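User: New here, please read:
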Amino acid sequence: QEQLVESGGGLVRPGGSLRLSCAASGIDFPMNVLTWYRQAPGKQRELVAAIAREGSTNYADSVKGRFTISRDNAKNTVYLQMNNLKPEDTAVYYCNALNRRSLWGQGTQVTVSS
């Protein structure tokens, strides 16, 4: 069964860090473009960071220099390292795997608050 499972969310103070993980199963992981999206209350889902099959990356302007996306094809896992977190980073973060179809995880909540 094709599945993505996110983990690593939580409550963190402004300026803190979190690392999100997204573990895949049932898919040909290396062949997928992997993307982290987020959706804040009352807002549309937005792209945060993406990593291509060969490892090239792309980031939203709002997270450049603070977030890093990486993938470990041996572990079928994609990561999002988030540093210097801000209250406006508060959202549910979703993992997406794109190959011939688009597969979504269930999301993990990130809350940045003092």
In short: The chain has a mean pLDDT of 97. The CA atoms of residues 72 and 78 lie 6 Å apart.
